[in-house]
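hi got a favour to ask and not much time before my train. below you get a single protein, a line of residues and a line of whole numbers that encode the local backbone shape. could you go over both lines and see whether the tokens make sense for that sequence. a few lines back from you is plenty, here it is:
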Amino acid sequence: MSPAAFRSADTYRPADTDRPADKPVVQSAVTSTRTAFTLVELLVVIAIIGILVGLLLPAVQAAREAARRMQCSNNLKQYGLGILNYESAYKAIPLSATGSNGSIVPRLTWQVRILPFMEQTAIYNRIDFSIDMRRVQVAPNMILWEVSPPYSRCPSDGYPSVLNPGTANARAHVNYGGSLGSQNVDGVVKTTCHPFTTFEQVMPGGNVRFGQTSNKGQVSGVFSFGNAVIRLADITDGTTNTILAGEVLPGCQWVNGTDTQAGTWINTWGNLFSIGGGVSTITPINEMTTCQNSRRIRDPLCNPASSATMQYAYGFKSLHSGGAQFTLGDGSVRFIAETIDHVMFQSVGARSDGNVLSEF
């Protein structure tokens, strides 16, 4: 064979017609790169995130409320110390009035008298107890009625701290009130909005409305809207079993025209008694009938709050779930459930009814 033949053999390539008919033609694969989610994948991710947020949100809200409740407890602890330090200095629970019915100047509650024991000496030193100080300036463009001490509001309550600031009608509101005990808190007008009268403590001298008396024998609790002098020694039921103060809600009180003084902390005169001065245990804990935008109205005829609904309004209330917090006569702070037996609750409010209490 010639060299040319060898070269022809070396370079021979079979034609397509020489390939078996059943052998496929191999094509090179082209790999594409995807740069985005599909709509289905995106919807799945959004759904998962929504589920996680739904699971976490209640936990976050619960943690925030726990923090607010702790701050509220600390405020009540400060109140307890202020009251007890005042009693230690003056040998009496601070008065809420200088006359038997609160009409004599300065017409200020016990909360004003404990200011030096609450680190508010600067404000206290500006108060002249020989005149009616409620509308007197104690700071530039600020009357006493506008002062809102930092410990006086619970962060769980979004009701405005001050209404009409910078004016003669300014009113600073409060979330803590003294305990009148199982005291009569009848309205100016007595209507069907008085369902709790039967729970009033029976006392030899009578149960005087809002404790407007000089006779401590007519006062159930440790505070009153009169000038009855009460000492720790008068808490014969035991300081660990008797309420000093507890939570209240200013948004549940009677607004007389535009005046919201019933929700404040300083007033003892007129029929708009400040809840800071005192409320009664005859009203069940968290009775919300008179509260603004309430969904827990016992009697629709008694909402909104008015001069006839004071028995509903002047009770201990909070926005904490299931109950309210209180400071007791020994300075401790307790959460009391709104489901407490209501007769027992009267004994926790009364300082000397002689009843033996079980755990509450």
The first strand starts at residue 137 and ends at 139. The first helix runs from residue 3 to 10. Residues 58-349 form one domain. Helices lie at 3-10, 39-90, 110-113, 121-124, 310-313, 342-349.
